[in-house]
Specification:
- This is DUF3592 domain-containing protein.
- This protein is α+β, with helices and mostly antiparallel strands and 157 residues long.
- It folds into two domains: 66 residues; 71 residues.
- The protein is built from two helices and five strands, in the order αβββββα.
- Strands 4-1-2-3-5 form a five-stranded mixed sheet, with no helix packed on it.
- Helix 1 runs antiparallel to helix 2.
Length: 157
Amino acid sequence: MVNTDRVRPRVSAFGMVVAGIGVLLVVLGFQGLGPALAAARADGAWGTFTAREVTCIQHPGHEQCSWQGEFRPDTGSAVRADITLYGSDRDTFAPGAVTRAFDTGRRGHVYGPGGSNEWIMSALLLLAGGFLLGLPVRRYFAWRRTLRAASLASRST
């Protein structure tokens, strides 16, 4: 008969690292989820964005550009300078061009009328973190099933 009181699952260093990474991904996913959902719904303070200059970053085989400028809220509150219009590209504007935009409160960014798909990255972070957190939990329950099956097998003999 198997003594189930003395058998304990071993917690490996690898399992702890995987769980830690899972926690980190879940925290990052939740941190960005609120503003990302607000941007997806175009939920924020509306105003106008005036393009001043485009800045670009070169990646291997790819160029990422965005327009900086100022955001003037419709409510008449203070103008926000040095703001980036999320999702803009090199050919989106010319200097001095004005477009409708909304502010979700995210530091340094406003969004165009089409909103944003940032929520997808937050959702992926949450899913990946949940998966990684689930690995040690699934291993624990697999250990319990094995232990229970061994206990039942030893009783039947």
